[in-house]
Amino acid sequence: MAHIDTDRRDFIKYSTLGILGLTLGGGMVFSPYLAAGENRLRPPGAVDEKKFLALCIKCGQCVQVCPFHSIKLSDMLKGAGAGTPYIDANERACYSCTAVPCVLACPSGALDHHCEKPEDIHMGIAVLEFPDTCLAISQTAIPKGFNEKMHNFTDSVRNVTEIEKELVEKLDSYEGKECTLCADMCPIPNPMSAIAMVSDAGGGYKPEIYAGCIGCGACQDVCPTTIASIVVKPRMTYDEYYKKA
Ligand code: SF4
Ligand code: SF4
Ligand code: SF4
Questions:
Q1: Atom 5 (ligand 2) nearest CA
Q2: Which segments of the chain have a pLDDT < 50?
Q3: Is the Cβ atom of 195 under 6 angstroms away from ligand 2?
Protein backbone atom coordinates (compact mmCIF):
# COMPACT_ATOMS: atom_id res chain seq x y z
CA MET A 1 0.00 0.00 0.00
CA ALA A 2 2.81 2.37 0.87
CA HIS A 3 4.07 2.53 -2.68
CA ILE A 4 0.58 3.31 -3.98
CA ASP A 5 0.41 6.32 -1.66
CA THR A 6 3.85 7.42 -2.78
CA ASP A 7 2.92 7.01 -6.42
CA ARG A 8 -0.24 8.99 -5.90
CA ARG A 9 1.65 11.74 -4.08
CA ASP A 10 4.20 11.84 -6.89
CA PHE A 11 1.42 11.87 -9.46
CA ILE A 12 -0.28 14.80 -7.77
CA LYS A 13 3.06 16.58 -7.31
CA TYR A 14 4.20 16.14 -10.88
CA SER A 15 0.74 16.76 -12.33
CA THR A 16 0.62 20.04 -10.47
CA LEU A 17 4.12 20.97 -11.51
CA GLY A 18 3.42 19.79 -15.04
CA ILE A 19 0.40 22.07 -15.23
CA LEU A 20 2.56 24.89 -13.87
CA GLY A 21 5.17 24.12 -16.53
CA LEU A 22 2.56 24.08 -19.28
CA THR A 23 1.06 27.30 -17.98
CA LEU A 24 4.40 29.07 -17.81
CA GLY A 25 5.38 27.79 -21.21
CA GLY A 26 2.14 28.84 -22.84
CA GLY A 27 1.12 25.19 -23.11
CA MET A 28 4.16 24.35 -25.23
CA VAL A 29 6.99 23.45 -22.86
CA PHE A 30 7.62 20.71 -20.33
CA SER A 31 10.58 21.32 -18.09
CA PRO A 32 12.72 18.19 -17.62
CA TYR A 33 13.50 19.41 -14.09
CA LEU A 34 9.93 18.77 -13.07
CA ALA A 35 10.40 15.05 -13.43
CA ALA A 36 14.11 14.90 -12.66
CA GLY A 37 13.78 15.25 -8.88
CA GLU A 38 16.45 16.68 -6.65
CA ASN A 39 19.50 14.89 -7.95
CA ARG A 40 22.06 17.59 -8.51
CA LEU A 41 25.45 18.54 -7.14
CA ARG A 42 25.17 20.51 -3.95
CA PRO A 43 27.98 22.76 -2.66
CA PRO A 44 30.71 21.23 -0.46
CA GLY A 45 29.61 20.12 2.97
CA ALA A 46 25.94 19.77 2.03
CA VAL A 47 24.14 17.54 4.53
CA ASP A 48 21.83 14.83 3.19
CA GLU A 49 19.27 16.11 0.72
CA LYS A 50 16.20 15.99 2.95
CA LYS A 51 17.97 17.82 5.79
CA PHE A 52 19.57 20.20 3.32
CA LEU A 53 16.18 21.27 1.96
CA ALA A 54 14.89 21.74 5.51
CA LEU A 55 17.90 23.73 6.74
CA CYS A 56 18.85 25.90 3.78
CA ILE A 57 17.42 29.41 4.22
CA LYS A 58 18.24 30.34 0.60
CA CYS A 59 20.36 33.29 1.69
CA GLY A 60 22.90 32.93 -1.13
CA GLN A 61 25.92 33.54 1.15
CA CYS A 62 27.79 30.58 -0.38
CA VAL A 63 27.13 31.99 -3.85
CA GLN A 64 28.66 35.33 -2.86
CA VAL A 65 31.95 33.99 -1.53
CA CYS A 66 32.79 31.37 -4.18
CA PRO A 67 35.83 32.70 -6.07
CA PHE A 68 35.04 30.50 -9.08
CA HIS A 69 31.38 31.53 -9.38
CA SER A 70 30.55 27.84 -9.21
CA ILE A 71 27.39 28.03 -7.13
CA LYS A 72 24.00 28.98 -8.50
CA LEU A 73 20.54 29.20 -6.95
CA SER A 74 17.80 27.00 -8.40
CA ASP A 75 15.03 28.78 -10.20
CA MET A 76 11.35 28.28 -9.49
CA LEU A 77 11.01 25.44 -11.99
CA LYS A 78 13.25 23.24 -9.88
CA GLY A 79 10.57 21.95 -7.53
CA ALA A 80 10.94 21.81 -3.77
CA GLY A 81 14.53 23.05 -3.95
CA ALA A 82 13.69 26.40 -5.56
CA GLY A 83 16.16 29.01 -4.31
CA THR A 84 18.65 26.47 -2.97
CA PRO A 85 22.31 26.43 -4.08
CA TYR A 86 23.63 23.88 -6.56
CA ILE A 87 26.54 23.39 -8.91
CA ASP A 88 26.25 22.59 -12.60
CA ALA A 89 29.58 20.99 -13.44
CA ASN A 90 28.96 21.45 -17.16
CA GLU A 91 29.04 25.21 -16.64
CA ARG A 92 31.44 25.70 -13.73
CA ALA A 93 32.46 22.98 -11.31
CA CYS A 94 33.72 23.36 -7.76
CA TYR A 95 37.52 23.76 -7.63
CA SER A 96 37.75 22.66 -4.00
CA CYS A 97 39.20 25.77 -2.35
CA THR A 98 41.64 25.08 0.48
CA ALA A 99 39.55 26.73 3.20
CA VAL A 100 36.15 25.86 1.66
CA PRO A 101 34.77 29.42 1.97
CA CYS A 102 31.26 28.45 0.88
CA VAL A 103 30.92 26.23 3.96
CA LEU A 104 32.32 28.92 6.25
CA ALA A 105 29.76 31.38 4.87
CA CYS A 106 26.76 29.13 5.44
CA PRO A 107 24.80 30.35 8.51
CA SER A 108 22.20 27.57 8.72
CA GLY A 109 24.02 24.25 8.95
CA ALA A 110 22.87 23.21 5.46
CA LEU A 111 26.60 23.15 4.64
CA ASP A 112 28.22 21.30 7.52
CA HIS A 113 31.08 23.25 9.14
CA HIS A 114 32.92 19.99 9.81
CA CYS A 115 33.83 20.19 6.12
CA GLU A 116 37.02 22.20 6.59
CA LYS A 117 39.27 21.13 3.74
CA PRO A 118 39.00 19.56 0.26
CA GLU A 119 39.45 16.01 1.60
CA ASP A 120 36.30 16.49 3.71
CA ILE A 121 34.16 17.22 0.65
CA HIS A 122 31.90 14.43 -0.65
CA MET A 123 29.72 15.79 -3.41
CA GLY A 124 29.57 12.67 -5.56
CA ILE A 125 31.79 10.40 -7.62
CA ALA A 126 33.32 10.79 -11.09
CA VAL A 127 32.52 8.21 -13.75
CA LEU A 128 33.81 7.81 -17.32
CA GLU A 129 30.26 7.79 -18.63
CA PHE A 130 31.02 7.95 -22.34
CA PRO A 131 34.30 6.13 -23.04
CA ASP A 132 33.48 6.08 -26.78
CA THR A 133 33.96 9.84 -26.98
CA CYS A 134 37.02 10.12 -24.72
CA LEU A 135 39.87 11.72 -26.68
CA ALA A 136 42.57 9.86 -24.74
CA ILE A 137 41.09 6.49 -25.64
CA SER A 138 40.70 7.39 -29.32
CA GLN A 139 44.14 9.08 -29.26
CA THR A 140 42.74 12.32 -30.67
CA ALA A 141 44.42 15.66 -29.96
CA ILE A 142 42.48 18.31 -28.04
CA PRO A 143 40.80 20.42 -30.74
CA LYS A 144 41.42 24.10 -31.36
CA GLY A 145 38.88 26.35 -29.61
CA PHE A 146 37.88 23.67 -27.12
CA ASN A 147 38.13 26.21 -24.30
CA GLU A 148 35.50 28.58 -25.65
CA LYS A 149 33.03 27.53 -22.98
CA MET A 150 35.40 28.62 -20.17
CA HIS A 151 36.16 31.89 -21.92
CA ASN A 152 32.46 32.61 -22.39
CA PHE A 153 31.69 31.82 -18.77
CA THR A 154 34.50 34.00 -17.47
CA ASP A 155 33.52 36.83 -19.83
CA SER A 156 29.97 36.67 -18.50
CA VAL A 157 31.09 37.19 -14.90
CA ARG A 158 31.21 40.75 -13.61
CA ASN A 159 33.74 40.36 -10.80
CA VAL A 160 36.04 37.81 -12.41
CA THR A 161 38.81 36.68 -10.05
CA GLU A 162 42.52 36.10 -10.71
CA ILE A 163 42.08 32.45 -9.89
CA GLU A 164 39.47 32.13 -12.66
CA LYS A 165 41.74 33.86 -15.15
CA GLU A 166 44.56 31.45 -14.26
CA LEU A 167 42.25 28.50 -14.82
CA VAL A 168 41.29 29.68 -18.30
CA GLU A 169 44.92 30.37 -19.24
CA LYS A 170 46.05 26.97 -18.01
CA LEU A 171 43.38 25.25 -20.06
CA ASP A 172 44.28 27.23 -23.21
CA SER A 173 47.77 25.73 -23.06
CA TYR A 174 46.33 22.24 -23.69
CA GLU A 175 45.11 22.97 -27.21
CA GLY A 176 46.50 20.43 -29.69
CA LYS A 177 47.96 18.19 -26.97
CA GLU A 178 46.91 14.66 -26.08
CA CYS A 179 44.11 14.74 -23.58
CA THR A 180 44.95 14.26 -19.93
CA LEU A 181 42.84 17.20 -18.83
CA CYS A 182 40.56 15.40 -16.38
CA ALA A 183 43.50 13.96 -14.46
CA ASP A 184 45.72 17.04 -14.71
CA MET A 185 43.03 19.49 -13.59
CA CYS A 186 41.77 17.51 -10.61
CA PRO A 187 42.06 20.25 -7.97
CA ILE A 188 42.34 18.27 -4.75
CA PRO A 189 45.66 18.27 -2.84
CA ASN A 190 46.40 14.64 -3.77
CA PRO A 191 44.84 14.19 -7.21
CA MET A 192 46.43 10.74 -7.67
CA SER A 193 44.13 9.48 -4.94
CA ALA A 194 41.17 10.42 -7.14
CA ILE A 195 42.11 9.97 -10.79
CA ALA A 196 44.95 8.83 -13.04
CA MET A 197 45.47 8.11 -16.72
CA VAL A 198 46.05 4.39 -17.25
CA SER A 199 46.72 2.32 -20.38
CA ASP A 200 43.70 1.33 -22.39
CA ALA A 201 43.44 -1.95 -24.31
CA GLY A 202 43.25 -0.04 -27.63
CA GLY A 203 46.73 1.47 -27.20
CA GLY A 204 45.61 4.82 -25.80
CA TYR A 205 44.96 5.93 -22.25
CA LYS A 206 41.87 6.37 -20.15
CA PRO A 207 41.05 8.03 -16.85
CA GLU A 208 40.58 5.72 -13.90
CA ILE A 209 38.77 6.89 -10.77
CA TYR A 210 39.79 6.03 -7.21
CA ALA A 211 38.23 6.30 -3.78
CA GLY A 212 39.80 9.73 -3.08
CA CYS A 213 37.51 11.42 -5.63
CA ILE A 214 35.39 14.07 -3.90
CA GLY A 215 32.95 14.62 -6.77
CA CYS A 216 33.84 18.28 -7.31
CA GLY A 217 33.09 18.00 -11.03
CA ALA A 218 36.25 19.75 -12.27
CA CYS A 219 37.05 16.81 -14.56
CA GLN A 220 33.58 17.10 -16.10
CA ASP A 221 33.96 20.86 -16.47
CA VAL A 222 37.28 20.69 -18.33
CA CYS A 223 36.57 17.63 -20.47
CA PRO A 224 36.78 18.96 -24.03
CA THR A 225 34.26 16.63 -25.66
CA THR A 226 30.93 18.14 -26.76
CA ILE A 227 29.11 16.23 -24.05
CA ALA A 228 31.61 15.60 -21.25
CA SER A 229 32.90 12.03 -21.41
CA ILE A 230 33.49 12.05 -17.67
CA VAL A 231 30.68 13.09 -15.34
CA VAL A 232 29.97 13.25 -11.63
CA LYS A 233 27.15 11.23 -10.10
CA PRO A 234 25.80 13.54 -7.37
CA ARG A 235 25.65 12.23 -3.81
CA MET A 236 27.03 8.83 -4.84
CA THR A 237 30.07 7.32 -3.10
CA TYR A 238 32.95 5.38 -4.64
CA ASP A 239 31.77 2.16 -3.02
CA GLU A 240 28.19 2.65 -4.14
CA TYR A 241 29.17 3.10 -7.77
CA TYR A 242 32.33 1.07 -8.31
CA LYS A 243 31.97 -1.77 -5.85
CA LYS A 244 28.39 -2.40 -7.04
CA ALA A 245 29.57 -2.32 -10.66
S1 SF4 B 1 34.90 25.08 -2.34
FE2 SF4 B 1 35.44 26.98 -3.37
S3 SF4 B 1 35.08 26.60 -5.56
FE4 SF4 B 1 34.01 25.02 -4.41
S5 SF4 B 1 31.95 25.83 -4.24
FE6 SF4 B 1 33.05 26.33 -2.34
S7 SF4 B 1 33.83 28.40 -2.68
FE8 SF4 B 1 33.24 27.56 -4.70
S1 SF4 C 1 38.28 13.00 -10.24
FE2 SF4 C 1 36.99 14.69 -10.96
S3 SF4 C 1 35.29 14.85 -9.50
FE4 SF4 C 1 36.88 13.56 -8.56
S5 SF4 C 1 38.05 14.96 -7.26
FE6 SF4 C 1 39.10 14.86 -9.26
S7 SF4 C 1 38.24 16.51 -10.53
FE8 SF4 C 1 36.90 16.23 -8.73
S1 SF4 D 1 39.17 15.07 -20.21
FE2 SF4 D 1 39.44 12.92 -19.62
S3 SF4 D 1 37.49 11.93 -20.14
FE4 SF4 D 1 37.53 13.88 -21.23
S5 SF4 D 1 38.36 13.39 -23.24
FE6 SF4 D 1 40.09 14.01 -21.96
S7 SF4 D 1 40.93 12.11 -21.10
FE8 SF4 D 1 38.85 11.65 -21.90
A1: 213
A2: 1-37
A3: yes
